[in-house]
Design a protein that fits this description.
The complex is a heterodimer.
Chain A: E1 4-5, H1 20-44, H2 48-51, E2 56-62, E3 67-70, H3 76-82, E4 86-87, E5 92-95, E6 110-119, E7 122-132, E8 161-165, E9 168-169, H4 171-178, H5 184-212, H6 214-239, E10 245-251, E11 261-270, E12 273-277, H7 295-310, E13 324-327, H8 346-362, E14 378-384, E15 390-396, H9 424-430, E16 433-440, E17 456-462, E18 466-471, E19 481-482, E20 492-496, E21 502-505, E22 508-514, E23 519-523, H10 538-547, H11 552-555, H12 570-584, E24 590-591, H13 596-601, H14 603-607, H15 619-622, H16 644-648
Parallel strand pairs in A: 1-4, 12-13
Antiparallel strand pairs in A: 2-3, 2-7, 5-6, 5-8, 6-7, 8-9, 10-11, 11-12, 14-15, 14-18, 16-17, 17-23, 18-22, 19-24, 20-21, 20-23
Chain B: E1 3-9, E2 13-20, E3 26-32, H1 38-53, E4 60-66, H2 69-76, E5 82-87, H3 93-96, E6 123-126, E7 129-130, E8 136-138, H4 142-154, E9 159-162, H5 172-184, E10 190-192, H6 193-196, H7 202-233, E11 238-242, E12 248-250, H8 251-256, H9 264-280, E13 285-290, E14 295-301, E15 304-305, E16 307-308, E17 311-313, E18 316-318, E19 322-323, E20 326-328, E21 334-337, E22 346-351, H10 370-376, H11 394-408, H12 412-434, E23 446-450, H13 454-465, E24 470-472, H14 476-486, E25 490-500, H15 506-527, E26 535-544, E27 551-555, H16 557-563, H17 566-580, E28 588-598, E29 621-629, E30 632-640, E31 649-651, E32 654-658, E33 661-665, E34 669-673, E35 679-683
Parallel strand pairs in B: 1-4, 4-11, 5-6, 5-9, 9-10, 13-23, 23-24, 30-32
Antiparallel strand pairs in B: 1-2, 2-3, 7-8, 11-12, 13-14, 14-15, 14-20, 16-19, 17-18, 21-22, 24-35, 25-28, 26-27, 26-28, 29-30, 31-34, 32-33, 34-35
Helix pairs in contact in B: 2-7, 4-5, 9-14, 10-11, 10-12, 11-12, 12-13
Classes of the chains: A alpha+beta, B alpha+beta.
Chain lengths: ~675, ~675
């Protein structure tokens, strides 16, 4: 049963003719409301992940649930279809279960709140927002276990629930949830902040409808969606060839020593419509790197990426959804079956953008960008300090933005919208840490006419014993370069014990014990280069060397020879560039740094880590050819009976531990 | 008998306001600006205003001046060659910044980051370490540092910044490096982050201190030059510069901490607006200052401008208090366009600027601007001109708007009206940002319009905001000079002090506030402000433990000492509820403590205009003109503002002209002239 909307005074809206100026004004007002949601959340949230790093996303949708302003597209359609209940005035829904909202959020840490907005007894819009909670319980601090086999290990999973009913907070439900989290005061405060942000959006929407009239407001949202559809239609016709394009990229490993996992996508155009097909993507993993990719969300990724690359003037919303068709085979890494674990989906989520870039760029090489910082690496550190107080840090790392046709990729920056780093002085004053190194790694950005950004090296000195988790990728495969640009440097993690002993850390691990005095070097990866490095302005290469971003030796990869004062030696540069151009031949469209078999073969020698083993897939997933007819209502929960547990092997023994919570 | 002088240097005119300290009488003068060396224009103005007042320039004791020198230095990238010393491991603190990429999902594709204000090639690392608790973890290696400083000397740096990790907790090592640098780099000015902004967050502290170094030599030269020239005419004159926070600083303090001057210009406008509106009887204001390329808006409550702890100029954001002025890229020169793919009408942020300027100015501009739209609508009349302004060509404006009209399928007039509606909407967004979005109801505020284009659009903004009356003061330039002349000497001292309520006591907090008050008072000592004329206010930045936000609470220190920490805690809960709809039952955390010392407010008499009747005198009515407003062609009366009298009522649609501004009164609105020559616009009753 789909959700039932209950209105006390239902009246149809009238589609009216709009003055184009009014339309632009409403568009601006909607955008302002969206930015205001962010502002309210950042200011009132408590977890550093949301308040400093901005791991959250807002949305305002029309009454059908189509996103008019926001970031990741709407999930409301899927939610309405799956939710077996009523949507009423005064409701606010909370869900954290990807399987109950068709992947609108993709792991349990993301708390999604949705509010239907009513005006005078009828539904006029929706506002929604989700934020990443530092902890939602489960088997490890941070709730992102790299070795989870089932979603049940990843914390408290909340199906769509009316957490606010008739504008009353359902306190007993909230208390029940918070009781399952390690840092309940953060969750509580972040929850309040999300509610406040959504209420702000509601206020603005009602003000707008009052200012312009309900029918004008309703018609304007419709027309904004239409306008976007028309613009995207033209864009698709101009940029997507009818000939099939293919691209594939990899997740290096699954945290269990297996990998790499392939993500494959093909794309072609039929008339005004573009079709994406993920056939050929590997089956779902038995660990937690699965990414439940919502088709609508993928359309938004794709639409936004096209807009940014080809015409940033277009305002994006859901209007163009009919112009895209997305096929993701069930049981794959991108559409795993319940109860597959999902917590470490960040790698595949990021890698989707590299795949998109590669796909769209093939038909338009002038617009092709290098492989990017397509991940958001996590670092976690927790334990009890000297005073017996529980500390727990979740933070997101950054790296090299790829080189792009418009210029260099910034060093040590974020590909994710609105993310920022946590000031190190803040970390040092609230956590038992000393941040001894915070710099980018010279030569780690892929050489190109436009250089890829450098990777970031963060040196954490631990001042208390505790446990750390690392989540990263691209240690085996390279961030590729394009149009002659070379790949960026891969990632690595080195733990230097107090006694000086160095330990190489895998890119995904949990519960690594550290002692006071140990130091972790968390080195991310560089962005791929864009365009021929031999065409890079030699003066800029010299500038980068003087700045310490490229080494003198590294300058030679651009064919640039420097004098002892680091100025350009014109003559030697010219002849070196000539020689290099000749021996290299025609620049490649993509430079992956070698075939996957070769990378695996050289893994131990080059990275210090053995090559990952061929992934094992669950038989019940691989063997099935015809997808079962599924109905994702929470009551059926058919998938729970699936023989996943058999295939998942032994369950890690849950350690018993007590957590002292800091009372708010 | 002594006099004080307010000076505002604008792009076209330099305005001066002379105040007789004993009587409060004022005299004004307007002379052309001299952009190559603005002191020439200032001196011409001094001569003129002294003639008007029939006094000897020697009698002027204080010159007060708002300046855009610091701002322009940043905007044009013409600052000093700055060297930077960081803690080992943090050389790239400005390169990495906050890792933020603007523009939303995929925004990186078009984001090109500019190089840091202090080049990496001129950044060196000091081998030292301070802990977050202010205890030295590792002592400074002096030998290495001296060697690296010598290298910077060879590179001929013009200013040096020292910004070390955790120096907000203990600045001792920075001071030590400062001493070594003085020795090694003879004469190069050194800025220490622990002096400039002793607050947590390494990137923000570093960029603020570097910005200080970056603008310092330019500002110093400008201030010294002006001071010297003024002294040639007036022996004992003291030059004061208006700071971003609306306070006055001596020229010496201003030159040492020029990062506090980045908003000096807009602050003058806001201070002037406050003064003018106060005379007219309004204490709650939205200020609306619209120029050629951008518009500045601010909110004033109870006669006090809201301050914020951040100043943004171009793509540089620093931690320095400034009047909370929000700037949008919307002005008379903003260009309208219709992107092919969406067919939407966009206005700005690109601007035709002064060169080539709007099409109507016939200086080579061909793109349609907001000014052109105003010309097409008849709101900037072409047939009547006052003063020696440039000619305005309606035919060229019409030609420029035509392509927009075609793309939208509208008439040229309708398209022009659309451009005005959109640009008004953009400015409306900025006004909402300082009001509605901060929990203020705009209906409780009057709106005051100034700047070159402010009076043209203010009535429309008043309508959108529902803020009445809309106040149009006479002479937009002299308004800033009023701001300059009426500002008080002010200084503040602050300190980061992160403690939860449960971990500190009233005694501890009060002791620090007493120290800060003494520190802030030092500036007033230097300025010779008599003790009786001083006042000190206290502020605390506070949040719920764990939050990122900071709300500033003003309070009385005596109250705090008597009643305890609730004196700051309770108002915080209330503000939090007002802003975010909820308060928490969590422990509160103090972050920054601040004491602000101020001198006495200047008294001056407002200039009054002659009294008249409701009907404006015949000589004020200079012509009639066709305008297109609210979707219709209408007849508007044109008035000469110089001839208007107190008590006159002007019925819209009407246009009031004066030498450097044009005021539009919309249909169904009326403007009443008050005793001081302000036009107060309200909906017609």
């Amino acid at each position: 049963m789909p959700a039932k909307i209950i209105e006390s005074k239902p009246r149809p809206f009238k589609r009216v003719d709009l003055n184009p100026i009014t339309l632009d004004i409403i568009e601006n007002a909607m955008l302002n409301a969206r930015w205001e949601m962010d502002a309210v959340l950042f200011r009132t949230a408590m977890s550093p992940g949301i308040r400093e790093q901005h791991d959250e996303f807002p949305m305002i949708a029309n009454l059908e649930g189509k996103m008019v302003v926001g970031q990741f597209g709407s999930f409301i359609y899927g939610f309405k279809e799956a939710y077996d209940g009523t949507i009423e005035e005064g409701d606010m829904f909370l869900t954290t279960d990807p399987y109950s909202c068709k992947g609108a959020i993709s792991h349990i840490n993301d708390w999604l709140l949705l509010r239907p907005i009513f005006k005078e007894g009828r539904l006029i819009a929706y506002a929604a927002m989700f934020g990443h909670m530092t902890d939602v319980g489960g088997k490890v601090p941070g709730s992102l276990p790299t070795d989870a086999r089932e979603i049940f290990e990843e914390g408290i999973r909340i199906p769509p629930t009316k957490i606010i009913k008739n504008d009353e907070l359902q306190e007993d439900i909230l208390e029940l949830i918070l009781h399952n989290c390690r840092l309940p005061h953060w969750n509580r405060s972040d929850f309040n902040a999300l509610v406040a942000a959504i209420r702000t959006a509601e206020k603005r929407v009602i003000e707008m409808a009052e200012r312009f009239g309900d029918d004008v407001f309703y018609s304007a949202l419709d027309e904004l969606l239409e306008r976007n559809k028309r613009a995207m239609g033209k864009l698709i016709r101009n940029t997507v060839p009818t000939k099939k394009q293919f691209f594939e990229d990899y997740i290096c490993d699954d945290g269990l020593g297996m990998g790499p996992y392939k993500i494959k996508c093909s794309m072609w155009r039929e008339g005004n419509k573009v079709i994406f097909d993920f056939d050929g993507t590997d089956p779902q993993s038995i660990s937690s790197i699965n990414f439940y990719l919502n088709e609508e969300m993928f359309k938004m990724f794709c639409g936004v990426y096209m807009i940014m690359v080809f015409d940033p003037q277009i305002m994006f919303n859901d209007g163009f959804y009919d112009l895209m068709e997305v096929h993701i085979p069930e049981g794959t890494l991108l559409k795993p079956r319940e109860p597959a674990a999902l917590s470490c989906r960040t790698h595949a989520l990021g890698r989707i953008f590299d795949v998109l870039g590669g796909l769209l760029g093939q038909g338009n090489p002038d617009f092709l960008c290098g492989a990017g910082f397509s991940d958001s690496p996590h670092f976690m550190y927790s334990g009890y300090d000297k005073n017996g107080e529980w500390y727990q840090l979740y933070s997101i790392g950054f790296g090299g933005i790829p080189g792009k046709p418009t210029g260099d990729g910034p060093d040590g920056h974020s590909l994710w919208p609105s993310f920022t780093n946590v000031p190190n002085e803040f970390l040092e004053s609230y956590f038992p840490l000393r941040m001894e190194v915070y710099e980018t790694i010279p030569d780690s950005g892929g050489p190109g006419k436009h250089r890829g950004g450098n990777a970031l090296s963060t040196g954490y000195r631990f001042l208390e014993p505790g446990e750390i988790s690392i989540h990263d990728d691209r240690w085996l495969t390279y961030p590729w370069g394009v149009n002659g640009g070379l790949p960026g440097q891969r990632s690595e993690k080195i733990l230097v014990r107090k006694n000086g002993k160095k330990e190489l850390m895998p890119s995904k691990c949990d519960r690594i014990k550290v002692e006071a005095g140990d130091m972790l070097y968390f080195n991310t990866w560089g962005g791929g280069g864009c365009g021929d490095p031999l065409e890079r302005d030699a003066e800029r290469v010299s500038f980068d060397v003087k700045a310490g971003l490229v080494t003198r030796k590294g300058a030679r990869r651009y064919g640039v020879v420097l004098n002892s004062d680091l100025s350009v030696n014109q003559k030697q540069t010219e002849s070196l560039r000539k020689r290099m151009a000749k021996s290299r031949g025609k620049p490649k469209m993509f430079d992956f740094g070698g075939k996957i078999e070769v990378l695996k073969k050289n893994a131990k020698r080059e990275t210090g880590h053995p090559a990952p083993k061929q992934p094992e897939f669950q038989k019940w997933v691989v063997g099935e050819t015809k997808p079962k007819k599924k109905k994702a209502t929470r009551k059926k929960a058919k998938a729970r009976k699936a023989p996943a547990k058999k295939a998942a092997g032994k369950k890690p023994a849950a350690k018993k531990r007590t957590v002292r919570r800091k009372a708010a | 008998m002594s006099y004080r002088l307010g000076v505002d240097v604008g792009g076209t005119f330099t305005d001066l306001l002379l105040v007789d300290d004993s009587t409060g009488n004022t005299y004004t003068a307007k002379v052309p600006s001299t952009p190559d060396d603005s002191s020439i224009g200032v001196l011409n103005g001094v001569e003129r205003v002294c003639q008007n007042a029939k006094i000897n320039p020697e009698k002027i004791t204080h010159v007060m001046h708002g300046t855009t020198v610091a701002t322009n230095t940043v905007l044009t990238g013409t600052g000093a060659k700055v060297g930077l010393v960081t803690t080992k491991g943090y050389k790239q603190v400005l390169q990495i910044a906050r890792s933020f990429v603007p523009g939303g999902l995929g925004g990186w594709v078009i984001y090109n980051k500019s190089d840091p204000l202090a080049p990496l090639a001129l950044t060196i690392e000091a081998d030292e370490r301070m802990g977050a608790d202010g205890k030295v973890v590792k002592k400074l290696k002096k030998g290495d540092l001296s060697r690296d400083l010598k290298k910077l000397k060879k590179e001929n740096i013009e200013a040096l910044t020292v910004s070390l990790i955790n120096s907000y907790a203990n600045g001792a090592t920075e001071k030590e490096i400062g001493r070594i640098a003085k020795k090694e780099l003879n004469g190069v000015p050194v800025s220490l982050s622990s002096d400039v902004v002793p607050e947590m967050q390494e990137y923000e502290r570093t960029i603020t201190t570097v910005a200080n170094s970056y603008v310092r030599p330019k500002v110093e030269t400008y201030v010294k030059n002006l001071q010297r020239k003024l002294k040639q005419k007036m022996n004992d004159v003291q030059l004061h510069i208006l700071r971003s926070d609306g306070g006055m600083a001596s020229s010496k303090v201003a030159a040492d901490l020029p990062v506090n001057l980045l908003m000096s210009g807009p602050a003058g406008g806001v201070s002037g607006a406050v003064w003018v509106a106060t005379q007219a009887g309004f204490q709650n204001l939205l200020t609306f200052d619209m120029g050629g390329t951008s518009t500045d808006v601010a909110l004033v409550e109870g006669g006090k401008a809201q301050l914020r702890r951040e100043t943004t100029v171009g793509d540089v954001t620093v931690r320095a208090s400034s009047v909370d002025v929000r700037t949008v890229g919307a002005g008379g020169g903003s260009i309208a366009h219709v992107p092919e793919l969406t067919g939407a009408l966009r206005v700005g942020p690109e601007s035709a600027g002064a060169e080539p300027g709007p099409a109507a100015y016939n200086k080579g501009g061909e793109l349609p601007t907001v000014t052109d739209a105003n010309v097409v609508l008849g709101l900037l009349p072409t047939e009547v001109r006052l003063g020696g302004d440039m000619e305005i060509r309606k035919d060229l404006a019409t030609k420029a708007i035509q392509p927009i009209a075609k793309a939208l399928g509208l008439s040229v007039k309708e398209a022009a009206a659309g451009i005005i509606d959109i640009v008004n909407e953009n400015m409306y967004g900025a006004l909402r940002l300082v009001s509605v979005e901060k929990g203020y109801d705009p209906r409780d505020f009057a709106l005051i319009g100034f700047g070159g284009a402010g009076p043209l659009h203010a009535n429309a903004l008043g309508r959108l905001m529902n803020s009445w009356p809309v106040i149009i003061p006479p002479g937009p330039g002299v308004l800033c000079a009023y701001g300059d002349a009426t500002t008080r000497v002010r200084d503040e001292a602050s300190r980061t002090f992160i403690k939860r309520f449960s971990d500190t006591s009233v005694g501890e907090v009060s002791r620090i506030f007493d120290q800060l008050a003494r520190k802030a008072a030092k500036t007033l000592d230097k300025e010779g402000v008599p003790k009786a004329d001083r006042s000190t206010t206290y502020q605390v930045d506070i949040r719920y433990h764990g939050q990122g936000l900071l709300l500033t609470v003003d309070f009385e220190l005596a109250d705090l000492k008597k009643k305890g920490l609730d004196v700051i805690g309770d108002p915080f809960d209330e503000m939090h509820r007002q802003l975010f709809t909820f308060a928490l039952d969590s422990d509160k955390e103090i972050v920054n403590l601040r004491a602000v010392a101020q001198g006495k407010e200047a008294t001056l008499a407002a200039r009054r205009v002659a009294k008249g009747s409701a009907n404006p005198p015949a000589k004020a009515k200079i012509a009639k003109s066709k305008v297109f407003l609210d979707g219709k062609d209408r007849d508007a009366q044109l008035y000469d503002r110089r001839e208007l009298q107190s008590g006159n009522v002007i019925h819209g649609p009407a246009i009031v002209l004066e030498m450097d501004s044009t005021t539009v009164i919309l249909p169904d609105n009326q403007g009443s002239v008050d005793d001081f020559g302000n036009i107060l616009i309200t909906p017609a009753s």
